[in-house]
Amino acid sequence: MAIATINPATGETLKTFEPLKDTEIAAKLNLANQAFEQYRKTSFPQRSLWLQKAAEILDQEKADFGKIMTLEMGKPYKAAIAEVEKCAAVCRYYAENAADFLADVAVKTDASHSFVRYQPLGVILAVMPWNFPFWQVFRFAAPALMAGNVGLLKHASNVPQSALAIADIFQRAGFPGGVFQTLLIGAAKVADLIADDRVKAATLTGSEPAGASLAANAGKHIKKTVLELGGSDPFIVLASADIAAAAATATAARMLNNGQSCIAAKRFIVEEAIADQFEKLLLDKFLALKVGDPMQPDTDLGPLATPDILQELDQQVQVAKQSGGKVLTGGHPISDRPGNFYPPTIITDIPLDAPIAQEEFFGPVALLFRVPNIDAAIKLANATPFGLGASAWTNNDEELSRLIAEIEAGAVFINGLVKSDPRLPFGGIKRSGYGRELSIQGIQEFVNVKTVWVK
């Protein structure tokens, strides 16, 4: 894929970039390695000052950064600005808490003094996706840099201006040269980076095949990885729930980021007793959404990021129809305007044993299933190779306890939208990946947990 900004709302190529030559990659690797030797010795208060400055830049220039994201991948401009604000928040969170998260932990043993110390690993490679071009990077970078590591960013090839802007933010915030660098390179170069002795670990957010490839290469070289991959997140609505609130949140949960989010709700599993009511409310909400120019403030749904994503999504919809699915609204690309637009779509009556029922739909398509009771709801929710997030709706305490205990996912949200929060660990199980980002668990992923015993 060419490294270029192509406006997904118009198809216009706005800017292209030459990928780095091998000699340029080598120079950046060498700079990162040299930077670590000095940066690891800086204090938490000093790192905190730099990260707080990065947060200030994000807040002050959020309109400009938001526009870059919208023009590169099509998210509604208002959502892009909110994403920048969230990046500033995660910077402040780790600037304020990293010292406590990584403080020595005393352990009573037969020694005169024993404790656990957390120390940085070195150069960390981050392979990041296009769907949240700023947030995905900052939720890695903020804890990694506060821990004393340095970062190399290999961003998606369709968001190069976002990638360069992020590196510029850290530079302007005062971080020493080489502590955070963007590499404008293709995916084929990742294996060589993993193999380089100067790279100590890697993290990837993206597709299952991309994660499997990175993990396999890292495994050859015995290097730590964290993976956040796909999801086919269930949204369970039981008869005891607030149905109107569930339908409103279901719409937001499916249309998040134009439907292009790993933790967007994708499979709506509704108890039969209230299925007709929920279906009508959801359909009304979908029909009310405005599809259009993502730069306009009243737009609810913008374009998909690339033509390939549009084509793949439509192919999945056609397979769902061929499997017996019934389309209530949408179901085909919008062809009367340029850009990668797909309408809000609801599909019902897909057989539970159809392979398409377990797949991840990366776009504004909701699969609606009816089940007789909570037992069937939990069984269907778990009938997928993924396990990232889940939303479940109930006002019954016994049902609540069962949903929390029995749903197989990295996160379960009751009566609310699944979302990431700097204060809570984020990640999945099964084929959704492993490891955690955010919270104390996130900053402790890329450190040496050193045992110290003194007699």
From TrEMBL:
Residue span, Aldehyde dehydrogenase domain: 3-452
GO molecular function annotation: aldehyde dehydrogenase [NAD(P)+] activity; succinate-semialdehyde dehydrogenase (NAD+) activity
Keyword Oxidoreductase appears in the UniProt entry: yes
A UniProt-annotated Pfam family: Aldedh
Protein keywords: NADP, Oxidoreductase
InterPro entries registered for this protein in UniProt: Ald_DH/histidinol_DH (IPR016161), Ald_DH_C (IPR016163), Ald_DH_N (IPR016162), Aldehyde_DH_dom (IPR015590), ALDH_GabD1-like (IPR044148), GABD/Sad-like (IPR047110)
Coiled coil regions in record: none
Protein name: Succinate-semialdehyde dehydrogenase
Organism: Nostoc piscinale CENA21
Similarity remark: Belongs to the aldehyde dehydrogenase family.
